[in-house]
Amino acid sequence: MQPLSATDFTKLATFRSSPAISIYIPTHRSGVEVNELQDAQLFKSLLQETRKKLDEHGMKKGEIAPLVQAGADLLEDDDFWRNQQQSLGVFMGKDFFFAVKMPDKVNSEVFVGPHFHVIPLFPLLKPKPFFFLVLSKGNARFFRGNRFGIGEMEVKGLPNGIDDVIHFEEKGGQQTFRRGGNKGKAAFHGHGAGLADEDEYIALYLKEVDQTLMTEVLAAEKAPLLLAGAEGMITRYRQESRYPHVAAMSLPGNHEHENTSDLFEKVLPVLQPYFEEDTENALKNYYNHSATSLSSTDPFKVFAACFYGKVSDLFVDAGLHIRGVFNPETGQASFRENFGIATDCLVNQGAVQAYLANGNVHVLKKEKMPEGGKVAAFMRYA
């Protein structure tokens, strides 16, 4: 799965047409839900809910049908529904359709307004790249990945286990040689008389893995490298590695023969602190300035700051909608309980404006919102 590009996100965020339809559903990668196409059935139900909303707001059936036709067509694509991630976002408007698979679970939702509801998409804009190395005595597997998935890389010269590095030339005074390496040249390492113990072989093997990765891939990289394997091998690799960004966390155990999909499912929770570190740092900064005029949980002040490009970090509740209108001339926001499909969600539009002004948008669960606010912001200036 590819990350959502900034270009595609901006198209969604700036699209304006009444109505603009946003549908989110949780989906499944595998299991009976996939086999029985249950995700498609849920989408079908929400598509019907969308038609009902449009009808209730005065649209005629002849106007509704072309708006949702692309969504109806999607229901016929069984292959699409059998290849999902954790969630799906579908966006429909006049002469517009876009669908995006998402790596995080979201709640089912239909939103109809003058703009698409894009708040659940903000986490997709920071894919957070990493490397992943699965070590065992019999194999070394190297992956490049991000929050959306991992892919195994073919690295030239990467040793295929200890036997690819160690060769017994003689039983007494033995030599080891590296069969791979740069330009196919063997690197010989004399061990002197007597058999070397297994620890020496493992150290040599891991040193060759590190040398190859540094030469072929990692020399100019800064993304964290997550290690998987037996704890002793992980510890030894940390000692041997020259890569300065080996992750402090690891995935212990034997993962030599696991498929890529299963490995990715195990990697995600291990790297969750890395995925969330930008938000955690922003929260710390907010609280460090909570007694100053640079921080606020006042919705009126926050929305005005968003529209005027003053927000450095905006924190929004993932499940919150505040319908209303912001007047940029007066700097005033008015909230509306009785709304139509022509009324914006100010949380959504504030987040979009903050993003377009190079602010950072952090989507949080309600319990993590600063000071219990509905929205919160740290400003560049008061």
Automatic annotation (TrEMBL):
It comes from the Bacteria. This is Uncharacterized protein. It comes from Anseongella ginsenosidimutans.
